[in-house]
Amino acid sequence: MQIGLTMVGCIVFCFFVGRFIDQLLGTKGIFITIFTVLGVIGGANVTFRQIMEVTSPKSPSANPEDPKDDNGAP
What we know:
The chain is an all-alpha fold. 68% of the residues lie in helices and 0% in strands. The protein is built from two helices and no strands.
């Protein structure tokens, strides 16, 4: 659910930024289009990184709570 909300959040945020700039400059949708495309690309990038973080195997030596030292002794 977080992945979907992240993607939608990026797109909606960029849409409204583009809409604001269009209204500010008096243009007719060019910035909405540009920023919506940037939102899709950015959302896909963040979503991809979230998926890779969840699915990547965890290294046993990367656990800071592990009481063992480098030699394997407790």
